[in-house]
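Tutorial, part two.
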Amino acid sequence: MIEKISAVIIPDVKHRYHVLPILLSGILISFSGFAQKKSENPRRTDPYQLMSKYYEDDFNPFAKGNWYVGFAFSLQDQRLQNQSRLFDKVLDGQDLNYDLTFRGGYFLNNFLMAGANFIYSRDKFTGTVVQESDTIIRQNITGIGTIVPSLKTYFPLTKNNRLSFFNELGLGVGFGKTVTRDTRNKDEINKSHTDEFAFTAGISPGITFFAIENFAFEIQLNNLIGYKLQVSNKTTNETEESKITTHNVNFNIDLLSLNLGLAYYFGTKKRRK
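Running the prediction step on this input gives:
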C-alpha cells in the first residue's frame, strides 16, 4: 500500500502536503493490523509463566498422606587465632567441619509431618594450642553419625504454598569416634582415641521455596534453641582412660552453619482431606 501511494508523489509543493497525511494514515493502519494479530495469538511459551501455572491449580505439597525426601549440607571453615575454647586456647589453627543430612517424612495431617534425619558430621582441626601451660601441636579428626526423629510444622507465606516457613522439633542420638595426635617439644607424641555419645534436642526453623514443580530449595538454622548432652570416653596411648560429660544449652544464630538443601514432595496435586 505504501509503495503505491509513494508513486504518485510529484515535486509540486501543493501536492506534497496533500500526500503526507495519506502516507501517515497508511502506516498507522498497517501497524494497528499487525498489533491486532499479535494480540489474537499471544505467546504462551514464557518459562516463568509455565512454571507459575503449575502452582495455581490444586497445588498442595503439605497435604495429609504426602511423602517427602530431601538432602542438605552445611560447611564451615574457620581460621582461629588466640581463641579460647572449653579445655584449651588456640594460638593458631584451622578448623574445617561439614554435615551431610538425609531426610524423609510422611504428612500425618495437613501441614504436619513426622520424619527422620540421618546426619553424618566430620570435623578436622590442625593447629597450635595451649593446654595446662603446655604448647601443643594438635591434629584431630572426629566423625559422628546421628539419627534424629522429628516433627515438622509448615506455615505458608503465599496463597499457592510456593513459599513457606517451617519449624522442626527434633530429638537426636549420635555415636562417633575422635582420633587425636598431640606433639610436645617436637619429640613427645601422645595419641588418643575417644568414643563419643551425644543426645540432642532442638528447634530448627527454616524456609521452603518450590522452584520447579515438586522440587524445593530449603534453608534451615540447625538447633536455633537446643540442648546437648555429650559423653566422651578417652583412651590415651592405649593405657590411660578418662571420661568427660558435658551439658550445653544454647540459643545460637550462626549464619555460617546454615543448612542448604534440596527436597522433593510426592503427591502435591492431591486435594486436601
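Residues 120 and 145 are 5 Å apart (CA to CA). In part three we will examine how such features are distributed along the chain.
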